[in-house]
Amino acid sequence: MSTRPPLSTVLPPLICGTATFNYQYNADPFSLPTNAIVQRALESGVNAFDTSPYYGPSEEILGRALQQPQILANHPRSSYYLITKCGRIGGSEFDYSPSWIKYSVLRSLTRLHTSYLDVVYLHDVEFVSPPEVLEAMNCLRELQAQGTIHYIGISGYPVPVLCSLAEMILRETGRPLDCVMSYANFTIQNHSLYTTGLARLRKAGVGCVSNASVLGMGLLRSSGVPDNGKEDWHPAPKELRSCVQKAARWVEEGGEKLEVVAIRWALERWALDGKVGSEPIGVSLMGVSNMGEFEETLRVWNSVLDGIDIPGRQVTEVKKQWSLDRRAETQELSEEIRKILGEYCDYAWASPDEGYVNKRVVKGFVDEVAPLPKAE
Question: Where do the NADP-dependent oxidoreductase domain residues begin and end (predicted)?
Answer without folding.
Answer: 13-306
